[in-house]
What does this fold into?
Amino acid sequence: MRLLISNDDGIFALGIRSLANQLAAAGHEVSVVCPDRERSATGHGLTLHQPIRAEVVESVFHPTVKAWACSGTPADCVKLALWALLEDKPDLVLSGINHGSNLGTDVLYSGTVSAAMEGVVEGIPSIALSLTSFTSQDFGPAAAFAQSLVAKLEKHPLPEILLNVNVPAVAAEAIAGVAITRQGIRRYIDVFEKRIDPRGKTYYWLAGELLEDVEESGYLADQAPTDVQAIRNNYITITPLQYNLTCASSLAMFKNLALDFPKNYQSNNLH
It folds into this structure.
């Protein structure tokens, strides 16, 4: 398969090397386009007010891998790859392996998930992969699972969706299995540390702390566990995601509000 791989941890991150090299060694045609530095928690930001540069990177990946380091965001990387750098459209876009989990509401901030979602926006099925630890350096089990998953998808292609995959940071023999999950909820205390720089000026440092994992009840609760819950039990989680955020269950409510533009509106030309 033709695979495009990106990430948000940067070109020299161990996670992307593990993923790209494993898939290249398995015989896939692998291209890598990822940020030239860490761009975590950038969401789906795009670079609009300055040029984007991409430089060929050699001697970092498997000899068959074509790689570029991009000055832009993770979403920039995938968009640039698809529209400017690659000669052929990839069959699959992968992002990761991220150093740290992307569970629950984390996906709204994640550069890893956003890189993969850019593939879906462009009509290509995608996978975001994360290892649920910021300290573990063992990406082997996650890379091996990625290879197995890609092999299955080669025979049974995905529709245009994103699979958000989180792999527990435990020994391979401790992994309980694979669970198809729904997105859970993670809540943080967004603590800003107030500091003073050497010139006496105030600045703030965001240091969010995970307060609790909330297990959502009700909707779909009897059909699938949340990703947060399954990871606690050492399952690899696969959560199908889409970019359409419409709250379909609320549409009927607004039909009864008789919303309209005010007929007596008059501009006061205040700006």
